[in-house]
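hey can u check if this looks right to u? its 146 residues, i copy pasted from the old doc so theres a chance i mangled smth
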Amino acid sequence: MNIVVLMKLAWTNKRNQSEIWVQVLAGKYGRTHHNDVELAVESSDSGVWRSIASVWSQISQHEGWSIGTGDETLFWKHNWVNSSLILEEVALNLPAEIQNCIVKEMTSDEGAWDWHKFEEFLPEAYVQMIYNIMPPHTDLGKDEVV
């Protein structure tokens, strides 16, 4: 199957969980999850499923998060600062209790970045990147994978 067609199928599978064919595949294989980097494949799986799985990680490598309310994006684990950066990979002495924080939890009650919650764990260059990103806000809608 053409690689472009496969990537389109994989992207649609990740992004449009409401489409009937995506639901059929999820029901049949029970292994489709929105944020998985890889899909599990078994020898008995159909050629279509194995083909989609073969390009899944390539799709995952090139997606990123667009921040809206900050309720769904993991601050340290998702690539929201830019598409090739996971903050956890550059963090220094990251405490376990904040490793699964969502972006919204890193803001103040007034809606500004709460710098003291994260700046001591990041090199200055990455703090500057965050400085240039608008903090999450309820008017911005849902967080989205783009």
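The chain has two domains: 3-61, 66-145.
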